[in-house]
Amino acid sequence: MITVFERPKALTAVKTHYCPGCTHGIIHRLVAEVIDELGVQEETIGVSPVGCAVLAYNYFDVDMQEAAHGRAPAVATGIKRVHPDKVVFTYQGDGDLASIGTAEIVHAAARSEKITTIFVNNATYGMTGGQMAPTTLVGQVSTTSPRGRDSAIQGYPIRVSEMLATIEGAVYIARVSVHNPQEVAKAKKAIKTAFELQIAGRGFTLVEILSTCPTNWGYSPKDALKWLVDNMIPIYPLGVKKTLEEGKS
Amino acid sequence: MAKVLMKGNEALGEAAIRAGCRYFFGYPITPQNEIPQYLAKRLPEVGGVFLQAESEIAAINMVYGAAGSGARVMTSSSSPGISLKQEGITYIAGAELPCVIVNMQRGGPGLGSIQPAQSDYFQAVKGGGHGDYKLLVLAPATIQEMVDMMGKAFDLADEYRNPVMILGDGILGQMMEGVEFPAEETALTLAEKPWATTGAKGRKPNLINSLFLDPVELEQHNHHLQRKYDRMAKEVLWENYRTDDAEVVLVGYGSSARIAKAAVDLARAHGIKAGLFRPITLFPFPKAALQEACKQANHVLTVEMSMGQLVEDVRYNLEFKVPVHFYGRSGGMVPTTRAVLEEIIRWAHSGEEDKA
Ligand SMILES: Cc1ncc(C[n+]2csc(CCOP(=O)(O)OP(=O)(O)O)c2C)c(N)n1
Ligand code: SF4
Ligand SMILES: [Mg+2]
């Protein structure tokens, strides 16, 4: 018998708590596949956030630390400074990274910490019940913007990747999506590039991944993917925002 | 080794290095700036890492990451910065990580002043952040004692897997005294930390965490922590000064205790049987020793640079059997020996009118 598909070694056999159709699960798998392919499972230390991915420490089969809300980049800094030869990544949501933890991510990038941040942008606070996030689109209904986000009152969404790409210390910043197999493949490539640049000691790397929250958006998993394509991608264009890979600029 | 004249903050930095501390994360704030400045110079010389964080919040979370990775690590700050660190400190306590946190207290509340104070006593000894937890709190009164304490602070942190706070104040940080350092140890034996995240090579992955979604588990965790805090009771440290026959016992820690000590000598010269009890560990509190020191006391007087914080614990630990009074200055003002002497005289003679 030939095995054509199996669980990556860097994922535990634990069943996840994610809602059906939530793309957090796909993103976990991609990170784990990259860890496997790079052969760094025993060298990796991950940091889980406060958000729906808080229990990521149960799913990644590597050393993990659970950080306070928004502080994962600071925790990862502490880890990496102690173990400069290890592979350190944070896994953070948009509330975690782009609201309460804005200072930590900006300064981790500015210091060019040799870490990789997996930034899951689902335009909402999933865990706490679909409140408005810093990334919620103008007009998007959330439990704390029940009439839709009104830019006159609640301002505008933050484009984290574009903002961080302006920072000299950032060596690789890309925005990807996981709404279809082609994009999943591109997302994996971006994650792998980020890890490789970290391992090469180049500096701060971040991959922003557009992700669905069918539960709080109020769509079926399939419609949620369509909503992401129709509404999020125009505001959050995909692509590599900055890279210092050899031969690219 | 010969004595050198050194500022408190710098001496503390050097002592941390001698104690094997190799990682420091902090953010500037007066009156503790000489600690990060000194370590910015010194740590790289010994292969360590000094990092100025973007805020106290980031600094304490870097400490969390480094402590969770097995490092001997510390941070320092002063009152407003220590308030900001509280979130990180409760996570560190919850995840049971060893580290040392220095608070060179200044006047509050709010932005307060940059002058010395002792008004963060409650915050230090009662937990400080949310949840049921305790720090080991050490209160040096001289620069020498502060230096001698650093090794112990890190060892206690490792032994109990708990954050240790050095509760100083602006006077201790800023003044200069002659100080002798322990010999430069080339090979300190540090505790093994098999629980740390170091990369799961040939072992099961480790997890640094303070989340327990199951309330049954979290309650068990809290009982486990509480048993640890109870075990710390044996670490109590204190100093008795002329308390053997003292009828008026002063109680103070840190800089205030030095002023109180001078006032005790003046009172003795006036024929008053005064003494000083100085707690050196504020948590655990040296309860039995305090009771012993106050055996002969008709009056107890706390001397503080606050509006009255230590006084509550002294009353509680004396079980309200002796009248406990308070004298303090706040906001960066420092008690004078003369003012403390007047208080001693007042309480020494109180009740005499009734007898006459
Ligand atoms: C200091 C603090 N503030 C607020 C919370 C509550 N909280 C938990 S998760 C969360 C939002 C998470 O949203 P996001 O980062 O977007 O992650 P998602 O759940 O969408 O994946 C908030 C506000 C907390 N745990 N700690
Ligand atoms: S609430 Fe949203 S983000 Fe969280 S697991 Fe469910 S679908 Fe995913
Ligand atoms: Mg989110």
Describe the protein's architecture and organization.
The complex is a heterodimer of chains A (249) and B (356). With 249 residues, chain A is of the alpha/beta class. Chain A has helices at 24-38, 56-59, 72-82, 94-100, 102-110, 151-154, 160-165, 181-199, 214-217, 221-235, and strands at residues 44-48, 63-66, 87-93, 116-121, 170-177, 204-210, 239-243. Chain A has a 7-stranded mixed beta sheet with strand order 2-1-3-4-6-5-7, with helices on both faces. In chain B, 41% of the residues lie in helices and 19% in strands. Chain B is globular, with a radius of gyration of 21 Å. Chain B has 13 helices and 15 strands. Chain B folds into 2 domains: 4-234, Rossmann fold; 239-348, Rossmann fold. The mean pLDDT of chain B is 96. The A-B interface holds A 41-45, 47, 54, 57, 60-68, 71, 74-83, 86, 103-104, 106-107, 111 and B 23, 25, 49, 51, 53-55, 57-59, 61-71, 73, 87-88, 91, 95, 197-202, 205-211. β2 (63-66) of chain A pairs parallel with β9 of chain B.
Salient structural properties:
A: 249 residues, alpha/beta, Rossmann fold, 7-stranded mixed sheet, 17% strand, globular, B: 356 residues, 2 domains, 5-stranded mixed sheet, 15 strands, 41% helix, binds thiamine diphosphate, binds iron/sulfur cluster, binds magnesium ion
